[in-house]
Amino acid sequence: MRRARLTWLVVLVALLGLLYAVWAWREVAPPKPAGSAAVTAVMSGDATGFTRALGPRAFEFPADHGPHPDFRQEWWYYTGNLETIDGRRFGYQLTFFRFAVTPEAQVGASAWAVRDVYLAHFTLSDIAGEDFHAAERTSRTALGLAGAQAEPYAVWLEDWHAEGDPHSLTRLQAHAGEVAIELELRLTKPLVLQGDGGLSQKSAAAGNASYYYSMTRLDTAGVVRVGQQTFTVRGLSWMDREWSTSALDKDQVGWDWAALHLDDGSELMYYQLRGRDGGVDPQSRGVLVDGDGGVLSVSAEQVQWQVLDHWRSPRSRARYPARWRVVVEELGLELELTPALADQELNLSFRYWEGAVTVRGRRGARSLSGTGYVELVGYE
Prior knowledge:
Elements lengths: L5 H17 L13 H7 L30 E11 L5 E12 L15 E11 L4 E10 L5 E4 L3 E5 L2 E5 L4 E8 L2 E9 L4 E2 L5 E3 L7 E18 L2 E16 L7 E11 L4 E9 L9 E5 L5 E5 L3 E10 L6 E10 L4 E7 L5 E3 L3 E13 L2 E12 L3
Antiparallel strand pairs: 1-2, 1-13, 2-3, 3-4, 5-6, 6-7, 7-8, 8-9, 9-12, 10-12, 11-12, 12-13, 14-15, 14-23, 15-16, 16-17, 18-19, 19-20, 20-22, 21-22, 22-23
Helix pairs in contact: 1-2
């Protein structure tokens, strides 16, 4: 996964591609949030000229940290939970998306030519302040306004950026209005290839898949700024990296995704793809990463994902799940996830809920606690 974001990412490709085709020489405002009608209209977007994820491949680093221009879309996805020394908590999201407007072979040599559009989302959940901040930027790659590279590693959109060495230290920086982050992320476990050796199948159709890896536990330190206050923070982050061309299946309407850091040193990631009939697609899956870095695959058949409560957005009127019970009996795992803030809805180019959660539960006889992030798409 990072997931089954494919549906709304294709929406953005279509909308942003049209805008840039008409106004390629100037900045454009982000499109309005796309609803289900727009999603349906572009589900079968033209993939001609782009590579598709049709089977497992050998991953190559550092090259695969950089862009994959032969695929239609990709993303670099950072989320995390942070605390000050006296326990004030924050959640953050910093994500960069690349969308190809046209296959590379069709682009002219002009420095103003637009082949790729970059989009970035930055959010800060101020738990004590009971406030959620969300911002978005879009830009073309022409003239270096946005882009990505493998060596040295960097992905940026204007002065929002992630850079450094993903296998040791990555620096994140972003600001919007009265909030900002400056963070350093240190990798503490080997990266995890999701799915079948890194091939993450999204539906039964050939090519409806992505290449996907995660960095599941990143020790994080730095500063968070809110208004005139600067907070020194520490915590844990999660990074997802994915590239693909195909959209979801036409019968898939959304997904729930969770990435959790548990206090026994393990991490759990699980996503479920929801069908129009209300069922869970069998391609839904996840992983449990033990404290020593061992990886156990988790299938949809093994996971009980129960919604315990709901929250209705005052803006979109969307009704989102708001508390969950997650059980994996074969692992002796039983967890309850609770949003750190009820309102962590992004109302940007696409409307979705993604935010910090608190975890309580057990694994066998041992009590567990932790933090994590949950993403909910397709609830309008």
